[in-house]
Amino acid sequence: MRTLRLTLRPLELTDAPRIAALGGDWDVARMTGRIPYPYSSDAALHWMTGLADGEIVFGIDRNGADSAKQLIGLCGYTRNADGSAEIGYWIGRPYWGDGYATEAARALIDYGFTKGAVKRFTCSHFTDNPASARVIAKLGFRASGECSGWCEARQISLPTLRYERRRPWTSAIKALAS
Question: The pTM is what?
Answer without folding.
Answer: 0.91
